[in-house]
Amino acid sequence: MIETASLYVHIPFCDYKCGCCGFYSIPETDENVHQDYLNALQNELDSFDIDEDSLETIYIGGGSPSILSDKNLSALLSMFAEKFSPIEFTVEMNPRHLTRDKLITAELFAVDRLSVGVQSFSEKSLEVLGRKGSRAENLNALDAAGESVIENLNIDLIFGLPSQTLEDFAKDLDIALSFEPSHISAYSLSVEQGTPLAEAVKNGKLKLPDQQLDRKMYEHLIHRLEEAGLYQYEISNFSLPDFECLHNWNYWRSEQYLGLGASAGSFCEGKRFSNPADVEGYIAAGGNPERECQVLTEKEYAWQTAVLMLRTNRGILSPEFSDKTGFDFEKLFSSEIEKNINEGLLEKTLSGFRLTPEGFSVADTVSRDFVLD
Fold first, then answer.
1. Domain with 327 in it: what CATH number?
2. Which of 180, 204, 240, 333 is the most buried (most CB within 10 A)?
3. Same domain, yes or no: 28 and 91
4. Quick check: 235 and 360 in contact, CB under 8 A?
């Protein structure tokens, strides 16, 4: 029996591929293909003997789960709602597909958290991102979400876009806050290799903002959301008190999780494994493809735990780190700790260590110091 805190389910279908997207997804609107995929997904779920009592969260992402027809969305949600009773049940929805009927379906199957991928309310920024959605569609989707009985609403935003000004991003934030979300995830643009956006940046057709402007946007994000009562609990995540995303918290605490669907990754029983990024192969294999697998050494698990915990406002809680890994954090990373404290990027707390505000802004750089050879 597998004891896993979190279950991730990947629905890799979209009606088109965004120009900025580096996640595995395919443009596919054929409902028959969707149904075949859900059948394979059911088989994969049945192949794992999951301890129902240990499961705290379910997160259905993509792609775009909301591209499914109402019938297929019902089939997907019932697959999990009839078997599990998680503390938190999240479904991602694309504003283009978010309808009252889809929301009612989610409500019927006990979904209690929505994550809406708005990214921006600016037509110019949406065009830069290669998104076909519009400002009006984003606003209408959030209006509909606001009328749902599902009160836990996350809005995804992206900043640091080509041609985006600080004022542009400030407007995006203000509009998002007008819908009174319980949670906002805001990410500095990551240019993924092989995407049309990356090609446009490489060819000089689009120019990214400089580091100073990107930093100003990030600082404004933190201060504006704090004013609105959403506190920063992770590098890119902000919430009202008690509305933190438990699913992501489990990732950042280096808990076990199981991923289902094409390209989904898992970490269970000291092993990382993932399904191939291949919808046709996944369906042909009946949801049980050959998986790539890596067994982590004790030290590899220790650095994974350190890197993930440092992403949060709590940072490293030394007793918890020791209980999970068997290592003393301060002894294992003594030189890395000293280096980052001296640079003003890390600070000691009563129970461990955490990033300073300066460290949060360069967290990826700091994290690389805690990857052991």
1. 1.10.10.920
2. 333
3. yes
4. yes
Outline where DSSP puts E strands in 47-87: 57-62
How many domains are contained in the chain? 2
Q: Which two tokens stand for residue 134?
A: 């519009």
Burial (0-12, 13-18, 19+ Cβ within 10 Å), 350: exposed
How many C-beta atoms surround the C-beta of residue 89 within 10 A?
A: 24
Model pLDDT, residue 250? 95
Distances (CA, A) of 58 to 48, 229, 269: 15, 26, 19
The answer to whether the beta carbons of residues 54 and 4 sit under 8 Å apart is: yes
First-to-last CA distance in the chain? 33
pLDDT, tens only, 289-302: 999 899 999 999 99
Show the domain range for 93.
6-251
Q: For residue 129, what pLDDT band results from cuts at 50, 70 and 90?
A: confident
Same domain, yes or no, for 303 and 165? Answer: no
* Predicted structure pTM score: 0.95
Cβ of 170: how many Cβ atoms within 10 Å? Answer: 15
Count Cβ atoms below 10 Å from residue 344 Cβ, excluding itself. 11
Residues 314 and 201 in one domain: no
Indicate if 189 and 118 belong to the same structural domain. Answer: yes
315: left (phi over 0), alpha (psi -120 to 50) or beta: left
